[in-house]
Specification:
alpha/beta, single chain, Rossmann fold, 199 residues
Length: 199
């Protein structure tokens, strides 16, 4: 049997509980690559990516070495092509970064890649299995508003409207965790873990 780690994607819309699911897996020994957090880090620390963002949005994209997210959000959401171009810069940088991380962690049994846009970008095709985390929309909105003080319910609804619908994601997922408060998330994670690692 191969000693290569099993690489599993964890995805879901905003406020679905992806990070919480990963934290439960981590208690079982899995290691997680948080793609969205790393993307934010790379946008300020990868010199090639920084220069590309400046070329796209101008020098004012950065303030004192920090990415001016509001400036970029204002420009990108007015012009879809700018957002697409930004994604085309960021996704390959994340791809290189995750490959390096996987090489560094190749002695692990289970590696997770947590990403909001796993199916949208097609990166799920490079993974062994994929887990979708779902939750009712009203619950997701409440979670995000409680977590992110700068977001209002309308902002979250707007983000949800731009993300791929769960019905579409279900067709692509190998496993679905229903994070609706009715079923135990820990139990669902344990069942998937047993199937992935113990079986």
């Amino acid at each position: 049997m191969s000693n290569k780690p099993l690489i599993v994607g964890v995805t879901g819309g905003i406020g679905s509980g992806k990070t919480t699911v990963c934290k439960v897996f981590e208690t079982l020994g899995a290691k997680t690559y948080y793609a969205d957090d790393r993307a934010k880090w790379l946008m300020e620390n990868d010199p090639e990516l920084v220069e590309s963002i400046k070329s796209l949005f101008g020098e004012s994209a950065f303030k004192e070495g920090k990415l001016d997210r509001q400036h970029i959000a204002r420009a990108a959401f007015k012009d879809d092509s700018l957002l697409n171009q930004l994604n085309k810069l960021v996704h390959p940088a994340v791809g290189r970064d995750v490959e390096k991380w996987m090489r560094e962690n190749q002695n692990s049994k289970l590696l997770l890649k947590e990403a909001a846009l796993l199916f949208e970008t097609g990166s799920y095709k490079n993974l062994d299995r994929n887990i979708l985390v779902t939750a009712p929309e009203d619950m997701r909105i409440r979670r995000v508003v409680a977590r992110d003080s700068h977001r209002k319910a309308e902002d979250v609804k707007d983000i949800i409207s731009k993300q791929m619908k769960d019905e579409e994601k279900r067709k692509l997922a190998d496993f679905v965790i229903e994070n609706d408060g009715n079923r135990s998330m820990i139990e669902q994670v344990m069942n998937i873990y047993k199937e992935l690692v113990v079986a």
